[in-house]
């Protein structure tokens, strides 16, 4: 693997925090299923197309895209985490139109002009050089091929982030400030900044839209609160301050209380703002 994002490889492939995504695989897939639906709807894949899924993780988008393109198409899922790819491969067992590759998409020499479409759910925000990554990924597209990717919108529109963060910092204190545009989950919150980077990378027909939807964490209020405490901002605050089991329980209870307004029929429907980006590789097919 040609690697230019070593810190990301270490985090997602080896750290305890990254490995939690394996532990909570089913809960995460259920929570983010509406984002997969949005991505596939906007990508409008066709039977027989060849697709590249960037930051495929455990394969949620890869498998959904494989169904869309059918046996005559193909989907290659790319990720920087070997454990994630191992799990994704098990999920895709028996599917002849799916493959996976351990690769850093910013620098990997993909086969040029070989894919009809690029997809990504929350996989584009972590590159050390976003312009270089966009340009490299675009080279894998056929001329006129389309890139469609979803990223988190502004913090204020995403209680998935701000409610657990508030509960954790109220309990343990504030963490050091970070640049919100630095590589990380919220790095693409500013649509204008990201579309500018896409243009700088040479992409054409750039479109972007903030889409409001509901995340669907399973397990009712208790399950949603537990998931939000064990992943994301609350987990990072707990790790930073070496929080105790009592701290985790208190934070989970605070998150549960904060999520109560989003309970409908016993299930949590958590509002989210997703930035949806699309562009084409310059040229015509």
From TrEMBL:
It catalyses: phosphoethanolamine + S-adenosyl-L-methionine = N-methylethanolamine phosphate + S-adenosyl-L-homocysteine + H(+). The keyword Translocase does not apply. Residues 51-145 form the Methyltransferase domain. Keywords: Methyltransferase, Transferase. Pathway: Lipid metabolism; Phospholipid metabolism. CDD domains: AdoMet_MTases (cd02440). Transmembrane segments: none annotated. Pfam families: Methyltransf_25. One of its GO terms (biological process) is methylation. Coiled coil: none annotated. PANTHER family: PHOSPHOETHANOLAMINE METHYLTRANSFERASE, PHOSPHOETHANOLAMINE METHYLTRANSFERASE ISOFORM X1. This is Methyltransferase domain-containing protein. The lineage of its organism: Bacteria, Pseudomonadati, Pseudomonadota, Alphaproteobacteria, Rhodobacterales.
């Amino acid at each position: 693997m040609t690697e230019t994002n070593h810190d990301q490889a270490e985090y997602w492939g080896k750290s305890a925090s990254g490995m939690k995504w394996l532990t909570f695989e089913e809960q995460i897939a259920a929570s983010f299923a509406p984002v997969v639906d949005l991505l596939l709807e906007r990508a409008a894949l066709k039977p027989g197309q060849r697709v590249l899924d960037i930051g495929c993780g455990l394969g949620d988008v890869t498998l959904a895209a494989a169904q869309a393109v059918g046996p005559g198409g193909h989907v290659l899922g790319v990720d920087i985490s070997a454990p994630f790819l191992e799990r994704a491969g098990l999920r895709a067992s028996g599917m002849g139109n799916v493959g996976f590759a351990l690769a850093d998409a910013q620098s990997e020499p993909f086969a040029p002009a070989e894919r009809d479409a690029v997809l990504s759910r929350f996989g584009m925000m972590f590159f050390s050089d976003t312009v270089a990554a966009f340009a490299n990924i675009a080279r894998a597209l056929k001329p006129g091929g389309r890139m469609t990717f979803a990223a988190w919108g502004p913090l204020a529109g995403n209680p998935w982030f701000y409610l657990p963060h508030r509960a954790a910092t109220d309990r343990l204190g504030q963490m050091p400030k970070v640049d919100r545009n630095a590589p990380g989950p919220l790095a693409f919150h500013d649509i204008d900044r990201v579309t500018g980077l896409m243009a700088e990378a040479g992409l054409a027909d750039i479109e972007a839209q903030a889409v409001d939807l509901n995340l669907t964490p399973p397990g009712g209020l208790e399950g949603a609160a537990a998931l939000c405490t064990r992943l994301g901002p609350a987990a990072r605050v707990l790790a930073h301050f070496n929080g105790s089991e009592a701290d985790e329980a208190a934070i989970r209870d605070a998150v549960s209380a904060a999520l109560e307004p989003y309970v409908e029929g016993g299930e949590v429907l958590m509002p989210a703002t997703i930035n949806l980006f699309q562009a084409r590789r310059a040229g015509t097919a």
